[in-house]
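Input record, target 12 of the design panel.
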């Protein structure tokens, strides 16, 4: 991670769960992190808790569903910090309905956060990295549910699974686009966690959310943060295209 000391990272969905854990890991490694989230007060509290560490967290309120706010965030990074070296696309939402019972607003919201915002952020980050000819890195937080799975009718998530399949395809497509450039210095990785204890279960209105993780093997957010730091620490000639991280004993995806 030494080569990232002093570099600039943008992390979406940075106020809690996996995003907050990734922020902590990056700041402790000496990275200047711009954390994007709707809950500014949580970002500010996280920044305060990280004072005195080698890096720094810059909290910025941003709803990634709103293109203008997302673009403004990247403009701010360019103006104030020079540009983006690392992008971690972590923001994601789901709900606990079946697709056949859900509504269009829900479909649209999931796709806007999980797919469209990710694509926009990738486009802006790549433009920043290429304009400065830097060795950049993009990490997309995916899911084991973004790969071939056994259907689980007792655990519906509406458009979440289709959106994560899109993340798998998006990551692979961008990797190929980057690889087609002989001067490319940018790597991209999809990290697919299994069951991880985060706020998304509560936010998705899963029944008995408080007790959900008591009955299934699960990871902690820090496990995914460690996975992120691992791929960032690989040599320039190494590209981890997909990293799947499941808790020991997980039966269902």
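The sequence produced for target 12 reads:
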């Amino acid at each position: 991670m030494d080569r990232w000391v002093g570099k600039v990272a943008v992390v979406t969905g940075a106020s809690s769960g996996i995003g907050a854990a990734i922020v902590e890991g990056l700041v402790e490694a000496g990275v200047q992190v711009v954390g994007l989230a709707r809950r500014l007060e949580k970002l500010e509290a996280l920044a305060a808790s990280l004072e005195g560490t080698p890096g720094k967290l810059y909290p910025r309120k941003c709803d990634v569903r709103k293109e203008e706010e997302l673009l403004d965030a990247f403009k701010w990074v360019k103006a104030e910090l020079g540009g983006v070296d690392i992008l971690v696309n972590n923001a994601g939402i789901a709900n606990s309905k079946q697709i056949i019972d859900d509504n269009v607003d829900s479909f649209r919201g999931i796709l806007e956060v999980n797919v469209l915002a990710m694509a926009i952020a990738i486009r802006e980050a790549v433009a920043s990295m290429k304009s400065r000819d830097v060795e950049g890195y993009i990490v997309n937080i995916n899911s084991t549910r973004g790969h071939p799975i056994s259907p689980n009718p007792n655990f519906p998530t509406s458009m979440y699974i289709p959106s994560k399949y899109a993340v798998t395809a998006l990551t692979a497509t961008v990797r190929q686009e980057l690889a087609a450039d002989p001067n490319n210095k940018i790597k991209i990785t999809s990290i697919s966690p299994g069951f991880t204890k985060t706020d998304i279960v509560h936010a998705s209105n899963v029944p008995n959310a408080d007790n959900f993780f008591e009955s299934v093997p699960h990871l902690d957010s820090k496990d995914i943060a460690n996975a992120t730091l691992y791929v960032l620490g690989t040599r320039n000639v190494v590209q981890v295209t997909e990293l799947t991280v499941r808790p020991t004993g997980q039966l269902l995806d």
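Residues 32 and 56 are 5 Å apart (CA to CA).
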